Amino acid sequence: MNVEDFLRTHPRRSGDLDVLAACVKACFGCAESCTLCADACLGEEKIDTLRRCIRLDLDCAEICAATGAVVARLTEPDAQVVRAQLQACIAACRACGAECERHARHHEHCRLCAESCRLCAEACEALARTI
Amino acid sequence: MNVEDFLRTHPRRSGDLDVLAACVKACFGCAESCTLCADACLGEEKIDTLRRCIRLDLDCAEICAATGAVVARLTEPDAQVVRAQLQACIAACRACGAECERHARHHEHCRLCAESCRLCAEACEALARTI
Amino acid sequence: MNVEDFLRTHPRRSGDLDVLAACVKACFGCAESCTLCADACLGEEKIDTLRRCIRLDLDCAEICAATGAVVARLTEPDAQVVRAQLQACIAACRACGAECERHARHHEHCRLCAESCRLCAEACEALARTI
Amino acid sequence: MNVEDFLRTHPRRSGDLDVLAACVKACFGCAESCTLCADACLGEEKIDTLRRCIRLDLDCAEICAATGAVVARLTEPDAQVVRAQLQACIAACRACGAECERHARHHEHCRLCAESCRLCAEACEALARTI
User: Is B10 inside a domain boundary?
Assistant: First the structure.
């Protein structure tokens, strides 16, 4: 499934879809990373210090999934809703990414998730600049 | 299922849970209203003028569901994430509520949904003032 | 937000909505209970024995939310999809409810969640018998 | 974000992850396709005959997203829940894929979505045979 090819088939597409497609892909990818990281943390022997990581993973997973869907819809969008949700996604990715980064040396899943969060925050910022 | 009773059983609850519980209930209630309104609109004979309503219902349903979960979690919350998501929820409820209001005279489900959106925006604003 | 009143405004409603509305309410209520129980478990000092409970709470929350939406939609439903999703919801509620029951004596949130799971499984079974 | 690489970092991974990773990717990919197809259908001029397609897209998107998350979690899974949710996902993908197929000649997004549904049903069937 290629997001960019799919968006090109939309009856109401307009302009350059590159920045948009990159954001949609980053949001859905980060939602997946956070879902997997939360579960990997839950399976770690020393779970006590990972509570905040699990919690922020769950927040970030839901926020990224909602943002990806809101951004991907091209029929009659509301710019204020899109902008506000992008800002929430950036905040969630920054908070989750910073927490994951703290565990990145001990847990490879946290390192991978921090990377997804960083990419998603950047893709949301890039899209926010265009709308 | 009573949200307030449930939150009182949380090991990390603190302070007055009334405003919080009201916001959680309003978010989950609005997510349900928007899901049902989108489907009722989809079933209306004259669907052409309801496209924007369906689209905003879908946005608002996902944003409210994510917000309700983020707000309801009391373990290690991140205030910036909570605040940003509340702002996104207020924007979604205002946009969706205004669109539903336009169809309220012809469609009772839009009238009910506009009411859910208004209550949810107010509950999010009330909670945002406390954090 | 009253699910039953809302379903009565749907242009394609048919027959007795009582069993349907009860199932929709139970699914959304159980999704909320499981979301709150997962977070309450995550905040407990002795988290080690609660891993399975958190995991099943997360599964059950997502499955109940999806089931509630699928069941609540009255426009052009597919009976096989509805039936299969109801069976998945019953399985999730049984597994999660049984695990929560094991912790009910020590954690009031697990007791409340077990009760939500039991009610949701029953409501899904009642609806499944009618379609 | 590479699902397979991510699953390999999980503390409780076991055995061959190929079939599992293929199913997770197919579920999340199909959830995205169905979300985009629903919105593209909503934007088509002749929307009247696409109601059932939009409705099944919404069902399939939520069911696939829930299934992907349930399947991807490796900490303390419940085989009966996984199996039942896989069956629900297969039913949703078949129903949605068949409806999309009917519109594939006129709408490229429906053709792409039908393909995602077919791949997802097959990946779920392959995983179901192993558990």
Answer: no
Number of other CB atoms surrounding residue D28 within 10 Å: 27
The CA-based angle D97-D101-D107, given to 5 degrees, is 120
Question: What angle separates helix A79-102 from helix B79-102, to the nearest 10 degrees?
Answer: 160
**Complex-level ipTM:** 0.97
pLDDT > 90 fraction of chain D, expressed in percent and rounded:
96
CB A124 within 8 A of CB A93: yes
User: pLDDT tens, C80-116?
Assistant: 999 999 999 999 999 999 999 999 999 999 999 999 9
Say how many domains are in chain C: 1
Domain annotation covers residue A4: no
Amino acid code (one letter) for B102:
R
Nearest to B55 among D42, D51, D55 (CB): D42
Residues 41-70 of D with CB under 8 A from C: 51-52, 55-56, 58-59, 62-63, 65-66, 69-70
* End-to-end CA, chain C: 26
- CA dist C94 → C84, C114, C125, D84, D129 (Å): 16, 9, 12, 12, 23
- Measured CA to CA, the distance from residue D7 to residue D127 in angstroms comes to 15
Question: What is the extent of the structural domain holding D120?
Answer: 15-130
Cα separation, D10 vs A40, whole angstroms: 5
With an 8 Å Cβ cutoff, is B28 touching chain C?
yes
Report whether A113 contacts A34 (CB < 8 A).
yes
Give me the helix-helix angle, B51-72 and C18-42, nearest 10°.
Answer: 40
DSSP 3-state of B106: coil
Q: Is residue B2 part of a domain?
A: no
CATH number, domain of A41, equals: 1.20.1270.360
D2 contacts: CB under 8 Å, gap ≥ 6: none
* D92–C contact, CB cutoff 8 A: yes
Is the pLDDT assigned to residue C1 strictly greater than 90?
Answer: no
Query: What is the crossing angle of helices A79-102 and A51-72, to 10°?
Result: 150
Kindly state whether residue C117 falls inside one of the protein's structural domains: yes
**Which residue among D56, D65, D88 sits closest to C85, beta carbon to beta carbon?**
D88
